[in-house]
Amino acid sequence: MKCPKCGNENCSIINETTTKGKDFSAGKGCLGALLLGPLGILCGGCGKGKQTMNINYWVCNKCGYKWKM
Ligand SMILES: [Zn+2]
User: Fold this and answer.
1) What separation in Å is there between the alpha carbon of 9 and the centre of ligand 1?
2) pLDDT of residue 40
3) How many CA atoms lie within 13 A of 6 on its CB side?
């Protein structure tokens, strides 16, 4: 693999995890705690519709440029 920025061929693959969708809402968790106690915190933090994605990136060891595979 060649770096598209500087043309260096010394590149390595890194893996990044990104979360998509609804993230943990602290406000929602607090509200749940008020209404339901500790159980409400769990409900607020269950994160419905949350998706985790693993994306592989190439990283140039020379200039640090990062791009998607
Ligand atoms: Zn580069």
Assistant:
1) 8
2) 54
3) 12
Question: Cα(52) to centroid of ligand 1, in Å?
Answer: 28
Token representation of residue 32: 């749940």
Structure confidence at residue 69 as a pLDDT band (50, 70, 90):
confident
CA 59 / ligand 1 centre spacing (Å): 8
Higher pLDDT, 51 or 40: 51
Distance 67 CA to ligand 1 centre (A): 10
Distance of CA 44 to CAs 18, 19, 26, 39, 52, Å? Answer: 20, 17, 7, 9, 18
